[in-house]
Design goal:
By secondary structure, the chain is an alpha+beta fold. It is built from 13 helices and 10 strands. Helix 2 runs antiparallel to helix 7 (about 240-245) and helix 4 crosses helix 5.
Length: about 400
């Protein structure tokens, strides 16, 4: 029988030599030509913790949109935004939206709050015990907090939300996590807390570290209400004459389009009622080394509008579960770190700044695409620049 086990080295699996051994193995097994996959400039010594069974790099084009003028509490000034995508027209569209934002005075951004959760589920003999356990948790919060925070120098336990279902008690631990996204950080901290709870609580129970109410890598309405990652808002007051000059639509037409889109999104039970928050978020995530699976949580939100009496249009994007990091994960990889450098988001205290830039980018893209749909330029722009060519 042919051995189909992927080659690994017990001494050092992160070398150019081992990557080539695996490429040769895959080429032999599948017939695929991995010539381009094997061409990369990063050192394999930076890869431990980011990848296993390394064979090379998937190269993806990166474009730059902007500049976009941001008036945030953390992001202030003009920013050139790197977007990794294979979709033609995308970068041009975001740049067009950013021009509109700039000519209206820039976009105002605000980070409202930020938490990362782990949600263990405790199982009891009866619903009454589960209820009483919840009161015990409230009474001993400070002790639980102290134990949880022994596992991390950054994470801080801010609150524990609770729900009783049947004979289960679901706890949702909410941590702040500094510049890290923090899923692994809060998992370790919550495990320590749960072990302390089992050892000290006057109840007979067992638990699962995740009862799935943390909704990790999943969209949920709970996140819309209570925040996961950063809750960040980007807002702008759009002048009618500027919108007509750049986008060829009036603020009245744009507002009417929002009403129709809101109705459609409501009927579809969509996670986002704007045109395409996931496009900008995914492109920025890939460029800057974010966890790409978090797009499913991060893209959810609300595009809100109000047509003013003078014809101006207030427009805002609220992203209640934007999960971003400027430390850890893929952010330290060479090309991803270079893209973070472009944004001035390398170093301590930069996660909120990055979140504001993401929100501003989403708003720019939504304005541009919605305007293209309303004006009838959506298909023609793809004919000119995109995959329709």
């Amino acid at each position: 029988m042919v051995d189909k086990k992927i080659p690994r080295s017990s001494e050092n699996d992160y070398t150019d030599e081992m990557a080539k051994v695996r490429r040769d193995f895959i080429q032999q097994q599948t017939g695929a030509n991995l010539e381009h996959t094997g061409k990369y400039s990063i050192g394999t010594d930076v890869l431990p913790g980011n990848i296993e069974n390394f064979i090379g790099v998937v190269q993806m084009p990166v474009g730059v949109a902007g500049p976009v003028t941001i008036d945030g509490e953390h992001a202030q000034g003009d920013f050139f935004v790197p977007l990794a995508t294979t979709e033609g027209t995308l970068v041009a569209s975001y740049s067009r939206g950013m021009r509109l934002l700039n000519e209206c005075g820039g976009v105002k951004t605000t980070v409202v709050e930020g938490f990362m959760q782990r949600a263990p589920a405790f199982i009891f003999e009866s619903a009454r015990e589960a209820r009483d356990f919840g009161q015990w948790i409230d009474d001993h919060f400070l002790s639980i907090k102290e134990v949880a925070e022994t596992t991390t120098s950054v994470g801080k336990l801010e609150k524990i939300q609770q729900w009783s279902i049947s004979r289960f008690r679901y706890l949702r631990f909410n941590f702040t996590t500094g510049d890290a996204a923090g899923q692994n950080m809060v998992g370790k901290a919550t495990l320590a807390a749960c072990e302390w709870i089992i050892a000290n609580a006057p109840f007979s129970c067992r638990y699962l570290l995740s009862g799935n109410m943390d909704t990790d890598k999943k969209h949920s309405h709970l996140n819309m209400l209570h925040s996961r990652g950063k809750r960040v808002i980007a807002e702008i007051m759009i002048k009618d004459e500027v919108l007509q000059k750049i986008m060829k639509v009036s603020t009245k037409q744009f507002a009417d389009g929002c009403v129709m889109a809101n109705t459609g999104a409501m009927m579809a039970s969509a996670a986002y009622n704007g045109p395409h928050s996931a496009n900008g978020i995914a492109s920025l995530f890939i460029a800057t080394g974010q966890d790409e699976a978090n797009v499913v949580e991060s893209h959810a939100g609300l595009l809100s509008h109000q047509l003013m009496e003078n014809g101006d249009l207030y427009l805002s994007v609220t992203l209640p579960s934007l999960i971003v990091a400027t430390f850890g994960g893929g952010t330290g990889l060479p090309t991803q770190n270079e893209c973070l450098q472009m944004l001035g988001c390398v170093g301590k205290g930069k996660a909120n700044k990055f979140a504001e830039i993401v929100a501003a980018t989403v708003l720019a893209g939504d304005i541009s695409l919605k305007s293209a749909v309303i004006s009838g330029h959506w298909v023609s722009s793809h004919d000119q620049l995109g995959r329709n060519r």
